[in-house]
Amino acid sequence: MLTFEMLTNIIGIASLLTIITLAMVIISKGERIKQLQGKIATLEKSLNEMDEQAKLIVRTDMELNKTQDELDKKMTGLYALQILSRQISTSLEESQIFKILKETMSFQELGFEKACAFLWDSLEGKFILHTDIGCLEDAAESIKSSVNSDKEKYLGLIKEAKSFSCTASSECADEQFAQEIKESFGVESFIIAPVLPKEGNQGFMLAGTKAKDTVINKGDQELISILANQLGEALENARLFEKTWRAQQELERKVTERTGDLTKALGEVKTISKRKSDFISAVSHELRTPLTSIKGYASILLAGKLGALPAEIRERLDKINRHSDELVHMINELLDIARIESGKVGMKKESLELQGIIIGVIELLSVQAKEKEIDLSYKIAEQAKFVSADREQLKRVFINIVSNAIKFTPPKGKITIQARKIDNMAQLDISDTGYGIPQEAQEAVFEEFYRVDNAINQEIRGTGLGLALVKRIIEAHNGKIWLKSKAGAGSTFSFTLPQTN
Q1: Which residues contact 399 (CB under 8 A, 6 or more apart)?
Q2: pLDDT score, position 273
Q3: Residue 429 forms beta bridges with which residues?
């Protein structure tokens, strides 16, 4: 039988076991609570991290949207700037450039409501408004007055060659000046960029907006600066074109004026030349009659038809006869020059073989050459054997030049005639080892009656007409004649003639 004491012990043991069990349960629950609390802390931490990441994503998205908006704005501005630049660069008239800038719709796409362009006029000493966008007429007058009242500050900006900007919410380098600009132009934000063409007057361009919340960034400033540079280049091109065009017009005017003067002078020269030729021809004809009589009477007397003549009289009559021949020769040459100049002598051009002409001239002048022991030779290239010329006139050319060479070449000298082909023409070179001709006299030797003023010419007789006649004959054959010589080192007379097969 259980006693009270045993029952009490049993109850105590059961209570103890219950307490122990509860304690273990409580401990287990505590551990579970701690685990749950750890998980809760971990979850809270994760939630906080996720919140921060969400906030970062939102901020990043906002920044990306802002960047995208700015990029879109910049792309739109660049496209509008490209159109504006192309339009103003195609004009070469200064007023038209500003008209294009005002009338095109591309400027508003840059993000500005108002714009003005001023150029400094150095003659009037003030800024001139050349274009305004988004300004009323009364406002434009007020703007011009305000700019010129502060012209020194604007000239300073141009001199510094730097852009200047200011917004409603930002501080400016010169707050007072910036406030004056805002009030004058009726804007809250603006950019001023200098317009700096290398030629002519310089100026500035202002672009602004009335919106208070507008923020002008570096991209906007760059766009307006680029546009101002493009405007300066377009103005420079227009001014250079205007300058070139005016110079061309002046040149054309002067050319026309000089052409008229030259035409008039040429007409006068032709008239004088004709009168000279007519005069020479008339005088020559008049001189031939008395010369013929003089020569005839001298010949009769020398023939003894009027009786025997003393030796002294015969000697003087010989001189009269000889000088009469010289005068006749001179008159004939003058007449030939006059006829060739007036076109009265027609050149009977035919295909001639140079060798036959040259050999004939050498044989004709061989006696004179032998007297001075001068070696007279020729050489003709195969490609220059035939020329188109008047036979008799070509003989006169060779006779005049070669006989001159014989006259002015010392004894035992050398004269060479060479023919070669140069640019579809036959070039004849007649060289000698004579006394030569000074440089200053070489241009004048082909003029009528010109003779080099030296001791040699005083000893050798001549009329100064031979080379002038030669020049007229060569030019009548569409050829040219020239001279290369050096005093004391001989001369080379060269001339060209058309070739034939």
Answers
A1: 361, 364, 365
A2: 62
A3: 418, 494
Distances in Å between the Cα of 98 and the Cα atoms of 85, 125, 233 are: 12, 21, 13
The DSSP secondary-structure symbol of 122 reads T
Helix (H, G, I), strand (E, B) or coil at 3: coil
pLDDT given at position 419: 92
As to burial, measured by CB atoms within 10 angstroms (0-12 exposed, 13-18 middle, 19+ buried), residue 382 is exposed
Mean pLDDT of 477-497: 88
**Cβ count near 483 (within 10 Å):** 16
- Could you tell me which residues come within 8 angstroms of residue 209 by beta carbon, excluding any fewer than 6 positions away? 111, 112, 113, 114, 187, 188, 189, 190
* pTM check: above 0.70: no
Q: Which residues, including other chains, have CB under 8 Å from residue 398's CB and lie 6 or more apart?
A: 357, 358, 361, 417, 430
- In percent, the amount of the chain with pLDDT more than 70 equals 75
Strands (E) in 334-487, as ranges, are: 349-353, 375-380, 386-390, 414-422, 425-432, 481-485
387 contacts: CB under 8 Å, gap ≥ 6 = 351, 352, 354, 394, 426, 497, 498, 499, 500
pLDDT digits (tens, 9 = 90+) for 394-420: 888 898 899 888 988 889 899 999 999
Residue (of 306, 372, 337, 356) closest to 446 by Cα position: 337
